[in-house]
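Bench notes, bay 3.
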Amino acid sequence: MKIRIISSLVMLAIVIPISIIGGIPFTVATLIIGLCALKEMIDIRETKKKFPFLMKLMSYLIITILILTNNNSNIFEYVLDYKFISLTLFLLLIPLVFYQDRKKYSINDAMYLIGVLFFLGVAFNLLILVRNYSLMYLLFLVLITIVTDTFAYITGKYIGKTKLAVLISPKKTWEGLLGGTFFGVLISSIFYYQVINTHVDVFLLAIIVTLLSLVGQIGDLVFSSFKRYYDKKDFSNLIPGHGGILDRLDSIIFVLLGFVLVISFL
């Protein structure tokens, strides 16, 4: 527990100033985190099968491009850059012709890398876009995640009885999910109304935050299913007492993706 607390304080001492400063420092930090997240996804896959070095190298190049592209775009007008989608597909699918030994590189390997790259690349690109748009919006999304996770844990621990996904995460309960969602919506909506926009439709705001709170918890379960499938407790031991990058950012990644999806319909 002591190591976990110390690690948390160190992370906060780094993350808070960089988030406030924004700009290039935040972009560089996000890129580094994104590269570490990709490494964790590659490493966990390689517990079953190794990727060719060239394919891993291209994957790091592609995610760098995906994270750094369109960083000055308006988050409310977000669109994927199709030339980078084409580049990703080209670089990861064409090598299948040359790696004729499927034990070295197969269509399943290519699909895994493509899925991971778009998933993480878009998520961390969105993180930069949200920060460039507004520090308060970034804080709002982080607040949804933290409050939901915290109260899901508290309510699940003290009144949780009905298991939510016993094969994926045995400790999670429906009571925890509902408690986390309730307090996540309540506290985050108050923050948004008081700090960001007092003229917002409160009912619409509550619906959006509810969706994001639920999406964040689904993200937690999705990443837990990865670890369960590959028989891993954590994605890595990069952060003492916490595990890896993805062990800390699983929910916020899904919240970011959910946020851009929701606002695209508004």
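Next record in the batch:
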Amino acid sequence: MSEKEKDSGSSESASGKNKRSVRIRRLIERKMVESWQNKPHFFVTIAVDMTDIIRFRKDLGVTINDFILAATSEALKEHPWVNSHWIDGEAVEQAQISLAVAVATEGGLYYPVVKNVEQLSLRQLSQSATDLAEKAHLDQLSADDQEGGTFTISNMGMLGVESFAAIVTPPQAAVLAVGTVRGEVVVDEHEELVVAPMVRLTLSADHRILDGA
């Protein structure tokens, strides 16, 4: 193959990826506009001490985000109404917990889905999330990899963002936005001032399905 043909092939490949990126952006745009216009959002934020999580993470060799996914799964088991879809004017609880995890790539933002999280161990969950993120960065996600999400998690902590509010992905009931972990002065159980690693979690929810109080 000549250099010209190689260059042509590379250009066509890049062009194809660019077109996919544009389609992805347009699809996300349509979904987000639809959600913001049609879903009555409300937002709640909580600050969480990550001291124990950071220690356990090092021992187990998993990420902070893996713990957040696992904790989210447990919370959805306890509050199944949050794991609902809004379908034909009513909330429908979903039998399985499948977490859509936002992954930012050069080609755009993807939401690969870790399916049936309630059946996975922490290590299995971690491996599945890692595999899907790698496929996203390689532009190798299948349609099935991106379907079936019942709840979404968006983590911008690696960008240094302290907190933010995400838009709920239709037809889901809610999305969890995860900020960066940073040292903050807090009062410990002995009523002493200490510096603890804190993270802010913001839940954006569809008020038609969930109540704010």
